[in-house]
Each structure stands twice: as structure tokens, then as C-alpha cells.
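From the methods appendix. Each design record in this collection lists the discretized structure first, followed by the designed amino acid sequence. Records were kept in a plain field format so they could be parsed without special tools. The example shown here is representative of the layout used throughout.

RECORD:
C-ALPHA CELLS (503 positions):
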């Protein structure tokens, strides 16, 4: 098949990479995802990772926090600190980043429905530590659309969630120039069962919906688009995954160039974080996951990622232990320091196979994108359940292939062994919820209830008036209102959402 070699890295459509010299000038950010038990324990893990050579922080929040619930909420029972760190108030955020220079370390926060509240807490703590908001750097996921279609941790109706997301984008465009106010995530779409082309097409469709909503708000393209980032998974098909990243960059530039007028080419330059695929990890023969993660990480690097998280080998059984988290980081460091591939830009570019599959994924990803556009865009498609149905059908097909032996997973359906002892993973204290509740009660006894009540009332009034909610939320955080209290006001005034039946 004939093919044309794409332009050099650093030139549109950025197929070969977003920087001319890529890793020759700067290695990708090694950003290990961490969060468990309580803020102090997570702070200790952060410091350990930084001392081991990690170059950025990535915060995992527990399920109650992701749903805007305090640790003492009855709905939080059994979940506090289990899959991430609980953050109930300004006090927890202070403990989480105690001794960490927020002016020098970039932080990623994987939070969506209550993203505005967690971001507000972070900015308040930065200011308390004397860090100008213009100097903080990092990313907040703030991608609510993929929650409706793949992950399920939404709270408010789609239109209201979009309003909150755009509020954050608008505020950051004016106040925090080094901060990425949204990370549009294909990772969770792929983890839920999508194909690689669906991951590309659905993610880009979501990003376009955020841009359209921001432009409708009155924002100029070049005022916020250069700070949009993306987040993808990296799976086991080594060649396809390398090509997927090249294709995503290409298609993003093409669609941006077709739809919008921009002066800054960075508005159409796709920057992304990658995480190795959690769904590919196996409990059976779990040490095999070390090999899976290494190949996935290598594919992400060969595909030109800007930031990378490598999973711990024991994550099919629980949160990673200190040992497995360190080994995962060392995997990245070995790729960066020992393989020699960082000496070359897009090392596989020009290969007939690589270019052919890249172009195939561009076309297939665009077909998915256009399907969503034909339904009125991502928000309207979410209301109809279109994306969820697409993902569920793909996941079912993959499961059938596994059960029918049409695909192989070592240790699961081929080369199996009898196993009796599985590694335990990170153990979380059963007392975490009780300890968080004690802290919450102490906080509420120390604060000024009149200030809290007034700040929450101001949020409700801002919702009704249609004004940007970030400053009122920041004020409430300063007055020690809790995450649950703030999100309760949002729920009361914005409503909640139940997905369409049958999906």
C-alpha cells in the first residue's frame, strides 16, 4: 500500500509528535497515580515516589469523594479510603500536600463531578503556602461526559455538568495560565470495553463538545484550547496502540482545523497522558503483569506520550503496595535510561505497517466521531445512551472472544496454573472512616457556622443567577465548608441524573 511519510515531529498534523526533538529535549513526565487510606498516608506515598525520581503527582480519590460525599455520609460506609484518598475539607487538602512545594511540582487530579470543589481546595491551599495562582501547574480531569457513557460516577444532569466544566475552563483561562482545566479521557472509555477507534472517536467528540460550550460562553479558542489535555489507555496490541496515539493526534488536528479559526497552532496540538491498561491486569499469575505493563509503557513512549503512569503488578487484587508502585516507576525509568529509544524521534515512523495502521485508525476514529455528530454531539448522544450502547456491544464481543478461545490471556485461558496464594495488595485500615469522621466533627466545631451558611447560600444564588461558580466555591472552602455540604447545594439546585433505561 502506498503511503506518504507525515511531516516531521513538531509540525501539523503532529502525527510524529508534538515537539521537534521529543524526548531528546525532555523526557515524558513520570506521574504515578496514588491515593489511599487517608491524606497523611497518601502524603507519605507522594514523598516516597518523588524521592524515587517521580517528576509529577497524580491523585486518586476514593469513591465518596468522587461522588461529592463526605466520609461521614451513610452512603460512604465501606468505601472511605478504599480506592483513593478521602478529601472532605480544606483540612484534608492541607494534609495531603503537607511539605510539597506546589509551585514546583505539577499535580494531576482525577476528579470529575465535584472537580470544581477539589480544584478550589487545591488553589486555596496553594495560596495559603504563598504560591501565586499563576505559578501552579497541573491538570484536573473535569471530564464529565465520559462518566455518563463509561464510568458511572456522575451526579448532576448532563447540561448542568457541562456548565460546571465550562465554569472551571473559563476561570482557569483567566487565573491559572499553567493549569490544564480539563483532561478529556479516553482511558475510561477503553477500560469499559471500547475498541481503539472508538476510544479515539468518542474522546475527540467529547472534547469538541467542551470547546463548543466554551465558545458559546464567549471564550476565544486560543484562550483555552492550548490548555486542553487528553488521557488515553495503552493496551496489549503493541503495534495498534503505537498507531492509535499517532492517529489521535492527526485526527484532532484535522477536526480542529476544519471546525475553528485559531491563531495559535497549540490550540490544535494534542497533548496527552497515558496510563497502562488496568483491565488487562490479571489476578492469576499476577507477576506476569510486570511484562504486560512494560510493553504497554513502551508502546506509549513510541507513540509519543507527554506523561505516563505505569500500573503495579498487583492491582488486579487491590491497591498497589509500596514495592509494586516502586517497580512500576522503575519500569519507566529503565525505558527512559536504558533502551536508547529516547535518542530518536518517532522511531517507527515511516514503516509501511505503522503508517498504514495509523491512517486506518484515523479513518475509523473519524467514522465514530461523525456518528456522534450525527446524533447532535456528545451531550445529546449521552441523553440517548448512544455511546454506552456502543461500548457495551464492543465489551460483549471481546468477552465472547475470550470465552470462545478466539483471544488469549496468559494465565487465564492459556498456560494456566493452579494457584492458592495470591499477593494481598495494599491493606487499608478499617478505622479510616471513623478517623475521618472524628476530623470532620472537630472541623465543624471550630468553624464559624454563620460564615459557612452564608457561603453556601451564595453558591445557590450564583447557580440561580447563572454566574461562574468557582469563586463562590473557593470562598466556601476558605470558610471550611465541606465537600459534601457544597455538593449538596449543587445537587439541590442543579438536580441529579438517572441514565436512560435499557443500557
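DESIGN:
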Amino acid at each position: 500500500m502506498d503511503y506518504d511519510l507525515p511531516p516531521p515531529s513538531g509540525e501539523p498534523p503532529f502525527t510524529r509528535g508534538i515537539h521537534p526533538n521529543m524526548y531528546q529535549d525532555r523526557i515524558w513526565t513520570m506521574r504515578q497515580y496514588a491515593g489511599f487510606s487517608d491524606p497523611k498516608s497518601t502524603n507519605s506515598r507522594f514523598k516516597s515516589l518523588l524521592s524515587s525520581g517521580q517528576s509529577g503527582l497524580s491523585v486518586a480519590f476514593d469513591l465518596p469523594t468522587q461522588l461529592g460525599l463526605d466520609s461521614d455520609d451513610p452512603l460512604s460506609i465501606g468505601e472511605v479510603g478504599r480506592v483513593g484518598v478521602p478529601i472532605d475539607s480544606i483540612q484534608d487538602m492541607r494534609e495531603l500536600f503537607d511539605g510539597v512545594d506546589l509551585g514546583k511540582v505539577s499535580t494531576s487530579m482525577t476528579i470529575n463531578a465535584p472537580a470544581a470543589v477539589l480544584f478550589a481546595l487545591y488553589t486555596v491551599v496553594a495560596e495559603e503556602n504563598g504560591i501565586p495562582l499563576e505559578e501552579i501547574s497541573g491538570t484536573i480531569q473535569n471530564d464529565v461526559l465520559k462518566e455518563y457513557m463509561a464510568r458511572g460516577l456522575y451526579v448532576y444532569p448532563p447540561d448542568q455538568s457541562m456548565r460546571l466544566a465550562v465554569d472551571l475552563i473559563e476561570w482557569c483561562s483567566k487565573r491559572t495560565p499553567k493549569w490544564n482545566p480539563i483532561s478529556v479521557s479516553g482511558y475510561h472509555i477503553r477500560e469499559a470495553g471500547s475498541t481503539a477507534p472508538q476510544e479515539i472517536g468518542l474522546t475527540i467528540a467529547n472534547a469538541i463538545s467542551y470547546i463548543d460550550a466554551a465558545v458559546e460562553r464567549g471564550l476565544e479558542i486560543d484562550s483555552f484550547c492550548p490548555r486542553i489535555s487528553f488521557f488515553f489507555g495503552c493496551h496489549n496490541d503493541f503495534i495498534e496502540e503505537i498507531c492509535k496515539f499517532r492517529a489521535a493526534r492527526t485526527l484532532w488536528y484535522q477536526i480542529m482545523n476544519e471546525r475553528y479559526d485559531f491563531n495559535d497552532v497549540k490550540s490544535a496540538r494534542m497533548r496527552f497522558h497515558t496510563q497502562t491498561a488496568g483491565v488487562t491486569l490479571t489476578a492469576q499469575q499476577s507477576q506476569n503483569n510486570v511484562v504486560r505493563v512494560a510493553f504497554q509503557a513502551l508502546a506509549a513512549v513510541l507513540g509519543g506520550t507527554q506523561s505516563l503512569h505505569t500500573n503495579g503488578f498487583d492491582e488486579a487484587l487491590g491497591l498497589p503496595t509500596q514495592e509494586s508502585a516502586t517497580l512500576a516507576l522503575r519500569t519507566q525509568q529503565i525505558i527512559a535510561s536504558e533502551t536508547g529509544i529516547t535518542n530518536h524521534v518517532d522511531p517507527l515512523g515511516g514503516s509501511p505497517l505503522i503508517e498504514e495502521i495509523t491512517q486506518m485508525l484515523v479513518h475509523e476514529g473519524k467514522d465514530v466521531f461523525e456518528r456522534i455528530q450525527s446524533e447532535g454531539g456528545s451531550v445529546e448522544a449521552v441523553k440517548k445512551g448512544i455511546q454506552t450502547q456502543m461500548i457495551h456491544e464492543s465489551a460483549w464481543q471481546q468477552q465472547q472472544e475470550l470465552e470462545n478461545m478466539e483471544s488469549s490471556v496468559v494465565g487465564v485461558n492459556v498456560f494456566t496454573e493452579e494457584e492458592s496464594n495470591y499477593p494481598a495488595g495494599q491493606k487499608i485500615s478499617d478505622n479510616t472512616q471513623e478517623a475521618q469522621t472524628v476530623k470532620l466533627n472537630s472541623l465543624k466545631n471550630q468553624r464559624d457556622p454563620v460564615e459557612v451558611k452564608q457561603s453556601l447560600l451564595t453558591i445557590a444564588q450564583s447557580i440561580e443567577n447563572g454566574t461562574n461558580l468557582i469563586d463562590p466555591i473557593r470562598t466556601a472552602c476558605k470558610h471550611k465548608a465541606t465537600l459534601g455540604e457544597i455538593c449538596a447545594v449543587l445537587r439541590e439546585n442543579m438536580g441529579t441524573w438517572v441514565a436512560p433505561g435499557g443500557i
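APPENDIX NOTE: The radius of gyration is 22 Å.
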